[in-house]
């Protein structure tokens, strides 16, 4: 996403990628990992002298063959169709635990968006060879994701990276892409079938889309600094902002950016789709200029309205100093969402929340079909950090009269050394699809500040 200063467009925040390999604890990311209860095996690719290996769907590449692959991971590339019946082909970079035995299955953390191109997140970043995006390198390293037995999947939405098709920002086409990505990730032979979505900004918006689709395989969504209402994001009381022109122009330029020359031919052919189909760029720009919020164009992208009846466990972060993805319609969205909700809202801008406690040894225990709490409810106890640092225990909370009982038991996480994860564990108490219970009471409270340091500075 981009911001405007005195009528000029600053570089998108996502362009300023932190290259540091310093490990950080990405707390909301762990929420997704905590939720998931729940191979590709083959000869590792051998790079020619002076060249970095390029993964295929059957030949994994490790860090030793390509330094852009995270340590402890095996990278493969895959292609699959979108779910709308079009000829759009989606590209996925899959990172599995290195050496995963044939037949073993792991839960999947999925990000879907526009920032996973091999040449850079928004524009080319000067890489010397191709490889998977490093957008969430801090999350991967700081959580020891692969050592803990998770897969990380990055899917390019149509028009970006290695996916073909015309850009369709949060429209029916992009919604079909998210649906296809969830189904594809859940159905892989190395997948347990449990998928959690994680992202910030654009790939947080697709997380909201995923929630709205009500996919059984989707067990949780972590959405940090998303856009809640696309129309109001680029208009003030119906008056267009300069972003009605700047945003589509920026994404059009990004979609048409060149990818790495050593990418495989299929990837390069898909990446050139917007260049060979200039009508895609014109259509994308025209959509932002549709003035009527009641038009079919904007109704199809009304995330809050489409959230009605959804119940996927949801964790969000939202800064009130946002200059980019302001919280318009956050209240409407959360009112329409009927599942467990947790979040951090505070005085920061377009940041991704992390805690830098490298010594924290995270433990979690999540059981399918466990506790459901009333929607939009959070704890106000001063002792929340102590309360959530307990061993897994059955819930003693009786269901409301006449409410359907959930399956299984309620579990609480027990991170060591203190952490800021306390209320988040409760948000993701269920990895199953227990019936959501309606509640006439919808209290609006906020949690106490976290006990351990929280840094809001990563892209």
TrEMBL record:
Residues 406-415 have a biased composition (Basic residues). One of its GO terms (molecular function) is hydrolase activity. It comes from the Bacteria. Residues 391-405, 429-440 have a biased composition (Low complexity). It holds the Pfam family Peptidase_S15. The keyword Hydrolase applies. InterPro entries: AB_hydrolase_fold, CocE/Ser_esterase, Xaa-Pro-like_dom. This is CocE/NonD family hydrolase.
